[in-house]
Amino acid sequence: MNACAYFDEGKCIETMEAHVKKGLELIEDLYIKRDYGKFLGRLLGVGLKTANDILRKTYALHDVGKCLEEFQLRGSSFGHHAFYSYLIAREALREFGSTGKVASAAILLHHHDWIVKESPKKPRNLKLCSECISIIEDLSGVTIPSTLPWINPRDAYGTADSVLVSNLRAVYAILLPITVADNYAAACNRRGKGSALGKEIFETLEVRGWDIARCIPSGL
């Protein structure tokens, strides 16, 4: 089964591996190499190495909900994947304690849909695609559960809300880089079918003189 991050008319246009690797390039060059980890570490109460590590892992996990077999077999949209990614990340990042909870809350918010029109539904098949798990584990360095650790959305959002209220700055300090990296990777890899924020992010990166931003087609 192909591990896909973006389908267009039933065809896989962007693989999960390509999406994560491209975004990690931005995380590394635009944030970590510019000492963003020092700022993040102060907010999280952790050292520089841990702060950088959690930032990489959070990005690698941000779309892990797309690994659901149901999504991969359907070959179309990934509705509520941020919520499913959040549930998986909570388990995968449990060893990081409160820092893992902050990172998971950022994953839940990475599509800016805290207020949703309908509650996420429990997938009929909770199993994750084994190929997709393998890719995410290799790129994140954490263990991914083989099935979605489902809990009631009301309870899940309630837990995330308490994390957001008590750690607002830390959540957004992780959310900003992963959102930029997510849209950057999408714009680079999807043959001009970039995300809604892709063009704006490209223009910002271009102004800052970041050469790698040239991967985004003109006229996006």
TrEMBL record:
Give start-end ranges for the coiled-coil region(s). Answer: none
Which keywords does the record carry?
A: Antiviral defense, Hydrolase, Metal-binding
Q: Does the keyword Hydrolase apply?
A: yes
Q: Which domain of life is it from?
A: Archaea
State the name under which the record lists this protein: HD domain-containing protein
Q: Domain HD Cas3-type: where?
A: 33-185
Query: Pfam families of this UniProt entry?
Result: HD
UniProt-listed InterPro entries: CRISPR-assoc_Cas3_HD, CRISPR-assoc_Cas3_HD_sf, HD_domain
Query: PROSITE patterns from the entry?
Result: HD_CAS3
Keyword Nucleus recorded: no
